[in-house]
């Protein structure tokens, strides 16, 4: 809980009383490696903050059966189907633990009540959403304009903690390139 509160306090002020109120809205959940947080077709009932661990969000490509990675999330990040959670409609993707993952979760109705009781959190969650939107926009631009090698190097620079914790094939899927291509880049760098 302290990690989440520290994250929030970087963006907004909360009084000691608000922190006590805030803590009452959250529950802890642990996912074992391979366990699902959300499956395609289910409604996302919880907003989830990762205390520790790694999650992947993905769809299954209907043509080839491969996982298409939408996002990877690690400690001190959020992992939620925002559209499903906010509209309480069925999700179009899956979220699964890549390793044992500890979460803090808040249900949809509790989330709404929390925002009413602690209005400054509206600003915090707006900041988080703006950051997420910026990341999505950058990804779209990179996917449309950059070559595979450039996308890979940018990913290395931007997310070094993910690179050290996530299998290469998941990074390749996220970038829309092959795992073999990443292997060739790594070999080339080792021989340089």
Description:
The chain has 192 residues and is of the alpha+beta class. The protein folds into two domains: 2-136, Jelly Rolls (Sandwich); 146-192. The protein is 49% helix and 20% strand. It contains nine helices and seven strands. The strands form two sheets. Strands 2-6-4-5 form a four-stranded antiparallel sheet. It has a three-stranded antiparallel sheet with strand order 1-7-3. A hairpin with a 6-residue loop joins strand 4 and strand 5. The termini are far apart.
Summarize the structure.
This protein has 192 residues and is an alpha+beta fold.
List keywords for this structure.
four-stranded antiparallel sheet, three-stranded antiparallel sheet, 2 domains, 49% helix, Jelly Rolls, alpha+beta, 192 residues, 7 strands
Topology:
Layout: H1 2-9, H2 16-23, E1 27-31, E2 36-38, E3 46-52, E4 55-60, E5 67-73, H3 82-87, E6 94-97, E7 101-107, H4 108-117, H5 120-145, H6 148-158, H7 160-163, H8 168-175, H9 179-191
Domain Cyclic nucleotide-binding: 29-117
Pfam family, one: cNMP_binding
Protein name: Crp/Fnr family transcriptional regulator
């Amino acid at each position: 809980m302290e990690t989440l509160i520290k994250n929030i306090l970087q963006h907004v002020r909360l009084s000691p009383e608000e922190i006590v109120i805030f803590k009452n809205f959250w529950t802890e959940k642990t996912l074992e490696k391979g366990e699902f947080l959300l499956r395609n077709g289910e409604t996302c009932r919880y907003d989830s903050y990762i205390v520790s661990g790694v999650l992947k969000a993905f769809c299954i490509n209907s043509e080839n059966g491969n996982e298409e990675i939408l996002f990877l999330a690690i400690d001190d990040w959020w992992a939620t189907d925002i559209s499903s959670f906010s509209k309480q409609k069925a999700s179009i993707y899956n979220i699964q633990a890549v390793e044992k993952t500890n979460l803090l979760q808040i249900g949809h109705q509790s989330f709404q009540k929390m925002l009413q009781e602690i209005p400054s959190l509206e600003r915090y969650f707006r900041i988080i959403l703006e950051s997420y939107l910026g990341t999505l926009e950058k990804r779209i631009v990179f996917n449309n304009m950059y070559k595979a090698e450039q996308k890979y190097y940018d990913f290395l620079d931007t997310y070094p903690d993910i690179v050290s914790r996530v299998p290469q094939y998941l990074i390749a899927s996220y970038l829309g390139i092959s795992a073999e291509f990443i292997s060739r880049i790594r070999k080339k760098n080792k021989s340089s």
